[in-house]
Every structure is written in C-alpha cells, then in structure tokens.
Amino acid sequence: MKEPLTNELLDELLSAPDPVKFANKHKLTKRVLSEYLQQLLDEKKLVQSKVINASGVQYTYGYQIFTGSRANPDRNVLLQLLFAMGCTLQEANRALQAAGKNELYCKNRRDAIIIFCLEHGYSLQEVDQALFDYHEQTISGES
C-alpha cells in the first residue's frame, strides 16, 4: 500500500481545522513494531528464523522482538534485524519509530554511514566494517 508523502500530509495537517479529524481521516494510529516487522517479512517473503540467524541476534531475543513480547529492543539490535531483512531507509525509520527509538538522522555521522549502507544494500558485515573503518561503534556491538 502506497503511503502519502510526509510533506503532503504535513501540509494537509497544517491547513486542517482539527488534528483529530485529520488523524481519523488518514487512519493514523501508533505503529506496533511486531506487526510492522511481520508485514515486512510477508512483503519481502522472508522467514523469521532465517532473518534472526542472519542478524546475529540471540535467537530468543530476536523471537521476542518479532512476537512483541519484547516491544522495546535495543536500537542496534533492531538495526541488525533490519539489515538482515534488507530494509530500505524508509522501512528502517518506520521500524525504529515503532520501537520508540530515534530514526536515522543524516546529520549524525554514525547514522549517515548507516543510511548510506542501507540505501546501497550493504550486508550487516559490510556496514559493521564501514563503521569500524570510520571509527564509529558497529551495529553488532564490536568497537
């Protein structure tokens, strides 16, 4: 399902007489991380266990994130899963937002490297190497 551009929605919101009517019209709800991750799995035709394995995340922890019993995962752990899923920047930021984490921000040096790697299809190992090469904390936690 194609979502409207954020700028278009912002313009409409700012000209709307009532923010609640705007939210209702666009069916704006709080995104649930586990539901969004399942949506991504379905869209990308991925298998949860393979994604967890490829991410390097401890299996039980990864499973809890996907089922929603661990709704507030560490930002780096979530990024590991997102790279293992081959997510785009937009998908990654939506997942981070759903988890209550800061979205990737291009004015932050580390985030800028991660954004570049996401958009260029880097693997988790490749993004970790890029971060290491630029003396930034890796996603998998090795510094």
Q: Describe it for me?
A:
- With 143 residues, this protein is an all-alpha fold.
- It is built from nine helices and no strands.
- The mean pLDDT is 90.
- It has one domain (30-133).
- The protein is globular, with a radius of gyration of 16 Å.
Give the helix/strand layout.
Elements: H1 6-15, H2 19-25, H3 33-44, H4 48-55, H5 59-67, H6 75-84, H7 89-98, H8 109-119, H9 124-133
Helix pairs in contact: 3-7, 4-5, 4-6, 6-7, 8-9
- Average of pLDDT: 90
Indicate the radius of gyration in whole angstroms.
16 Å
Shape: globular
Helicity level:
55-70%
Helix- and strand-based class? mainly alpha
List low-pLDDT spans.
Answer: none
Features:
143 residues; mainly alpha; 9 helices; 61% helix; 0% strand
Short description:
The chain is mostly helical and 143 residues long. Helices cover 61% and strands 0% of the residues.
